[in-house]
Amino acid sequence: MDQVKQQPPPALHAEGVVKRFGQTVALDGVRLTVRPGESHALVGRNGAGKSTLVGVVTGLHRPDEGTVEFGGAPAPAYGDTAAWQSRVACVYQKSMVVPDLTVAENLFLNNFQARGAGSGRLIRWGGLRRRAAELLAGYGVDVDPTLRAKELTVEQRQFVEIARALSFGARLIVLDEPTAQLDARGIQRLFTKLRELQAQGVAFLFISHHLQEVYELCTAVTVYRDARHVLSAQVADLSKDDLVAAMAGDAARSAGAWHAGKDSAALARSEPVLKAEGLALDGVFEPIDLEVRPGEVLGVAGAAASGTVALGEILVGMRAPTAGGVAVRGRYVRPGSVPDALDAGIGYIPEDRHLQGLVATRSVAENATLTVADQLGPWGTVLPSRTRAFARSMIEALDIRTTGPEQPVAGLSGGNQQKVVVARALARDPKALVAVRPTAGVDVKSKDSLLGVVRRVADEGGAAVIISDELDDLRVCDRVLALFHGRVVAVFGSGWSDRELVAAMEGVGERE
Ligand SMILES: Nc1ncnc2c1ncn2[C@@H]1O[C@H](COP(=O)(O)OP(=O)(O)OP(=O)(O)O)[C@@H](O)[C@H]1O
């Protein structure tokens, strides 16, 4: 018999996939082919259809048309969860493990029957732990299987979820913005692990708005735009400008890497809009003084454990400090009081729109105006016409992809939900806007307009604080404080280099 050397069948092949949600066509005949051992990026603007495709190829959404194959064989029936688990898994930004169970229990959850016939319902815990330790070691994952899932770092949790998927037999793993909550070193450790697994033939579908990560990690890329397939290419053959142009559908505008940089002498003469004195949170950050003057955008840079997010939460009244206080234009703000912070003119763009941001079942218009109900009509009544008018202006300004102001936010893509959170923060014309990683999950093209909106709050005489470890977020700032383990380790005016700022956030070159 002739031995014809054949290419192995693709790890995933989807063809002609159509998915509608009511009137919305989320996928319009798209295709995607991921080869074994490949790291394949799926990119596109907010609302392009990426998450919907992930839902279709992980068995969550039944497509209206089209086919899905794994390793050349048709996908399992929709609803047969165990069969889907043995083909593909998705590691989401949100943890899918059970927080109160141990790593070992999470690894074998739903999989007890796989431990051999005859064991019945009896679970042998010692054996379970041993097998978990073997499994983790087999994939080079250094995590104690007796820890509870809630005790894991984001990075460890992702590794456990990947090991769990592989133990079910899956050879395709979808990673949805996996670096969103990792610091620079965590990202490098994740990428190293992914490369090791790729070398063993595991394929990855990588969903990300970070194009530099696509170039660093991925070998192939597919672009969707407005629910359609635009191109698939080898990453090495595609320039970044061409990639952005394919996503945006028109000639790529330059990302406008502008350092703002205000006249520091003029700034120093004006009274601060936002002032914090001796602000501290025991065990999280040491006393810190802040002054943000009219027209100024202050950046607060730091990695996950730096204390920057807690600082932001204190500025907006979500947490009380252990010492110090905050004032807006000289008006003292009651510590730990969100209503008082709002009254004082503080606006807030939280990082986690799921927990703090939105009411999923309410409309875009209602969510965008949740904090301004008292301003929209007499005696607190909300006039629907005004709510809609404000929402319409925001939909336009922020390029929110929606069927209209009445659409429930649950039906928006993740990035478009984030824009609604931003709209809500702007609804009150805040004097001081505090934004935590405002562009998380927002596509490359929308990032500019969103940061421009934050910048405008300052340009109109207010002040803004951007808390982030994203260099692109920090570029719009006039001044950047870098925190490391709760201490300000560096202050930059305009003109910092990426390398300097990253080094400061990483605590490199810190002086005692
Ligand atoms: N459950 C749903 N109900 C109604 N419409 C939906 C639903 N899920 C998604 N859509 C719509 O389908 C389209 C594609 O959304 P999808 O979440 O796939 O985009 P995405 O590319 O993942 O965007 P993002 O980058 O913002 O996460 C959007 O117009 C969205 O509003």
From TrEMBL:
The keyword Nucleotide-binding applies. Residues 12-251, 268-510 form the ABC transporter domain. This is Sugar ABC transporter ATP-binding protein. It comes from Streptomyces tremellae. One of its GO terms (molecular function) is ATP binding. Keywords: ATP-binding, Nucleotide-binding, Repeat, Transport. SMART domains: AAA (SM00382). Pfam families: ABC_tran.
